[in-house]
Amino acid sequence: GSGTVGGAVNVASGGLLTGSLTLGGAVSVSGSITPATAGTIGTISLASLVLNGATLNFDLTSSLNSDKIAILGASAPVVTGSSGFNFSALGSLSVGTYQLITNTGGALLSTTGFANINHFNSLPGYVISLTNAPGSLNLIVNLSGTNVTWTGGNGLWDRSTTNFIGTTDNKFHDGDLVTFGSTTAGVVNSV
User: Fold this and answer.
1) Each residue of 111-166: pLDDT tens digit?
2) What is the pLDDT of residue 108?
3) How distant is the alpha carbon of residue 103 from its chain centre?
4) Rounded to an integer, what distance in angstroms lies between the CA atom of residue 25 and that of residue 5?
5) Cα separation values, 149 from 71, 134, 162, 187, Å
6) Which of 29, 32, 136, 143 is a plausible cystine mate for 11, CB 3.0–4.6 Å?
7) DSSP code string of 57-124
């Protein structure tokens, strides 16, 4: 949903906090958070945050936009237990920095406690890491640069044809380093 809530919010294990919300009280999460809704970029703003084995479901776009949690104060989130992120790409991604959690006071947001980072099962070819800076917790996205071999197959070279060896899905991904392993004649489509 959307709107403003003034009191404390507790999301129990198995529960879900979702929507474009402003929460004026303390927020404690053992369940999941999905800013906006799945497939839509949004922000949840709150006074303070405690994550206890929580799952944060964030969408990412090609313009370096992402779902966000904005802490409206100087505090950093408290992360206990083993919390984690599930990232989904809305279309393609860009190499760069995605801001995930911010605070207005500039406190250093720790990456400690985020043990699980699941991402891009449908978009291999990227490596990610969490980094921190005063006032923000960020996701850094880079290309993986996997060594692949073009088999030639039907002669097509694009992102959807399975003419490559060395990736889990046998497809070419941005940043891959290609060895030509076949002399098959055919059309090579630009990537």
Assistant:
1) 877 876 765 444 567 788 888 888 899 999 888 777 888 888 888 888 788 888 88
2) 78
3) 19
4) 8
5) 46, 42, 11, 17
6) 29
7) EEEE-TTS-B-EEEESSSPPPEEES-EEEEEEESS---SEEEEEEEETT-PBPP-TTEEEEEE-TTS-
Neighbours of 25 (CB within 10 A): 14
How far is Cα 3 from Cα 173, in angstroms, rounded to an integer?
A: 40
46, 52, 50, 45: which is closest to 31 by C-alpha?
52
pTM, rounded to two decimals = 0.77
**Bridge partners for 32 per DSSP:** 16, 55
Q: How far apart are the first and last CA of the chain?
A: 40
Q: Which two tokens stand for residue 15?
A: 């529960």
Place of tokens 């990412």: 60
pLDDT on residue 53: 92
